[in-house]
Structure formats: structure tokens, C-alpha cells
Amino acid sequence: MNFKRKKFEEKLIKRIFFLFAFLSVITTFGIIFILIFETISFFKEVSIIRFFTEREWTPLFAIKKFGIWPLLSGTFLTSFIALLIAFPMGIFISILISEYLHPKLKGIIKPLLEILAGIPTVVYGYFALLYVTPLLKKIIPQISGFNSLSPGIVLGIMIIPTIASMSEDAFSLVPMSLREASYALGASKLETSLKVILPAASSGVISSVILGFSRAIGETMIVTIAAGQRPILTLNPLVPIETITAYIVQVSLGDTPAGSLEYRTIFAVGMVLFVITLIFNILSHNLRMKFIKSFRI
Amino acid sequence: MNDLKKLILQKKFNEKIFILISILFLSFALLTLILLLTDIFIDGFPVLSLKFLLSYPSRKPEEAGILSPLVGSLYVMAVMIIFIVPVGIGAAIYLEEFAPKNFLTNLIEINIANLAGVPSIIYGLLGLEIFVRFFKLGRSILAGSLTLSLLVLPIVIMATRESIRLVPSSIREASLALGATKWQTIKNQVLPLAMPGILTGIILAVSRAIGETAPLITIGALTYIAFLPSTPLSPFTVLPIQIFNWVSRPQKAFHHNAAGAIIVLLFLTFMLNLTSIILRNYYRKKYKL
Fold it and tell me: How close are the terminal C-alpha atoms of chain B, in Å?
């Protein structure tokens, strides 16, 4: 009798835990379903051609224009500036940590870098708007109070740990025999790092850079606070712009009635953001898997 | 012979330049961290007082405090923990101990990895449609907690799986050999041993969630509240949203309030991280893992 009850309990717990694990699948489908559903009802009112051909984004004005390009250019401009900062720094730092630093020092430096990734983004927003922008103004007087340069730089600093730590992991996977072979041929440590280990780990390193870029694209608070809310199609880093994420925040803070066209715009641009980051994440994941496989023999 | 010497010297020089640049980059990153902390400390420290902690936000910066956002943050975190602990641990146990190797398990695993890369503001859109509109929870603490729960669940699940995997299989086998059922083995042997890793994961999840701003703005958390939430269905605001609100205003005095609130937020975040380290050490000694 007791045995039967135990078996029943066992089965019940297994079922419940399965449901908990399955919640992740439901979440994903929930996100996809909602984005598609709202985007379709958006495109019933605004043609998809206008969305991709108009050059202005003014859904909140009297004369409504629905061109996604200004938001896309703003998003990519800030993320690209971030990448310009984080790409060289992240890779140099990762080589320094993995090939040159004493293991004890490595144990101190790595967690210190991780603190950068753990700071709430609203704090970075404060720093970008009230510290970095005034600093830049001293160097470039014509820069606006809101611009994409300052949040771009701060975004870059935020994603350095992502790139540095993932690249460092990639370097550590490169077999010791490759290093030894290189040294045996008379190469210096630097030559080994740059000409043997970096190429060998290249897909792992690129995967870390893509993931960092994807983080920058999806980041919200830094760009909302410091980049402005003016969707202009420009590549000038000194003027205010608006990113996809900042636009979603702008609408959420207003009193747009649920179900209106303005309300649906945030799902349409959210869909674009989701698809872009998903592509980059899958790309990053595949590269990493390819890299791990290449050394697992 | 001279040429070889030159070559070696050149190589050594390159090496030094490379190390110098790397250290420069590393110091740039760490210096930014120090700069950020000191800047905020200088701006925010003067406003910190018991009155600042115990007053409601106000239109007058000198009278404004962070009582409602602070209580809101703690409330949202508490409700979130109630969800993520059973669900996160349960999901991890299923995947590590029960799951058969099949298509469905594979799908779940890929999903969890993918969810970790979805921008947090997208979770805000999900929470807005599902919890605020479909389940009609309104712009409430419950809606906010559930949204954040979905956001941080992958962290809890991955940390729990990791630490369950570290429990030696000899312990499971010993328990099963004594006639315990699988669930008894997990409950009495595996989970206690995996506890430090699990707790670390939960605390990390909370410290991530407590700084999240965008998803809560998206589901419509208010930016100005001068009362305390009474039930999980009350409207609410949280510290990051209050900070965002103050940063966005032109007056300098509000910026100092923002810096004060940031010090409190960073203090909470660092305390959480410290707790996770202490807990892990404590359990490590206790179970001698």
C-alpha cells in the first residue's frame, strides 16, 4: 500500500517538474505568438511596404509615418560604436588574461571585470548622460546633450566582460600542444598568441563578439537615457537619435490606449528587435559549437 | 649573429608594446568602474539620510525620498522568489534526473539557452500582453514579479543543473541501494548537497532582477507613487524606475537624488553578491565538497 503511494507520488512529482521545464518552451512560443499576432494586426492597418520604404518614423504625430529605418539606424549606430570600443579591448584583455597573467592575478582580475557586467544598466545611463557626455563636450564642443557617441562608448564598456570572458574561455580550449609546437619553432609568446592561438580560437572569439553585439542591440536603459528620443535617419554620432528599445520605453511611459495603432507599433518594432537578436544569438551559438567540436577529438 | 640579436630584441620590444596596450585597455575598463562609482558617490552621498530612505518621492527634490520604490523593489523581489524557487529547481531536477533523451528534452534545453539571449524589454512586451492584459492582473506587483520570473528562470535552472551535476553518483547509488525511491534520493541526498550552487543561482537571479528597468516600464509600472503597496495586486514602482525618472529631469537636485538612489541600489546588489559568496563558503565547509 505504502509502496503504491510512493509510486504515485513519484509520478506526480515527475509530471509537475516536467511542466516547470516545459514552461520555457511556453515562454518562447508566448513571445513569438504575441509578437506575430500584434505585428499582423499592425500590418493590416499600415502596409508592410510603408514600414520598409518610408524614411521617417512619426507614429505619435498627427501626420503618421511608419518607416523603421530611423530606429534601425539609431540601434545599429550605438551598437556599432559599442563594438568599436569593446572588440579590440575585449580581445587584448582576453589574451592578456589567458596567456600572460599569473593564475592568482587572473583570479582577481576576472571577477573585477564581471562587476562591470553586473551593474544595473540604469546606472550606466546615469553615467553616460551626466558624466561621459559633459566630458565629451569638452573635447567635441558641437556634440548635442543627447547623442549616440556617449551611450555607445558606455555600452561598449558594458559588453567588454562578455567578449573578454568568452574569448578567454575559447583560448583556454586551444590544446597546449599547439602552443608547444609554436614555441618549439622559435616563435615568441606574442607570435604564438596572435598567429597560432587567436586563429585557432577564431570562431570562438567571433562568437563572443557577435554575442556582445547582440547584447548592445537589445540594451535599453543606457540608450533611452543618453541617446535622446528623436528618430532621425543619420550616421552622425553627435546628434540625438532613437533606438528601437528607447522607442518602446517612450510609448510605454505615455498613455497610449491598449489596442490602438500606436500601441501596436511597439510590438511591430519589438518583432524586428527580436528577429535581429535571435539571428545574432543563433549565429554566435553555432560558431561556438563548431569551435568546441573542432578541438574535441 | 648581429641580425639574430636584432631580431630577438625586436621581438622582445613587440611583446612589451603588446603587454602595455593590453594593460592600458584593462586599466581603462577598471578605471571606468572606479570613475563611475566615485562620480555617483560624490553626487549621491550628501542626499543619503534616514529621511531620504523614509520619505515618498516628491516634486520638491529636497523633500523627496525613496520609500515607495524601495519597498516596491523588495516586494517585487519577494514575490518573484516565491515563483522562481520551486519552478527553477523543479525544472532543473526534471532535466538532470528524470528527462529521457528525446526530441522534447532537446527542445526544452535549446529553448532555455535561447531564452537567456532574448533582450529583457521583449519580456516586458510578453508580460504586458499575458499578465497585464490577458490575465487582467493590471499594472500590479504580481504582473511585475511574474514578468521578471520568466526573465531570470534560465539563470536559476542553469545554476541548479550545474550543481546537481556536481553531486557524485555514488551518493545516489548508495541511497537507491538502501531502498529509497528516486524522489527520496533527490530530496534527501542530492538537493542538500547541491544547495550552495542552487542558492548562488537564486541570489544571482535576484541581483539581476533588482536592477532591471525596461521590462517593468513596458508592463506599465508607475513612475511616481506616494503610497505603499498593500497587496500583490497594488500598483508599484521600483528603485531603477525612480532613478530613471530622476535622471530624466533637467534639475540638478533631482540628479543628486538619482545618485543617492543608485548608491542604495548598488548596495543591495553588492550585498546580494556577498551573501551568495558567504553562503557558498558555508555550505562548502559543512558538506566538505
Answer: 57
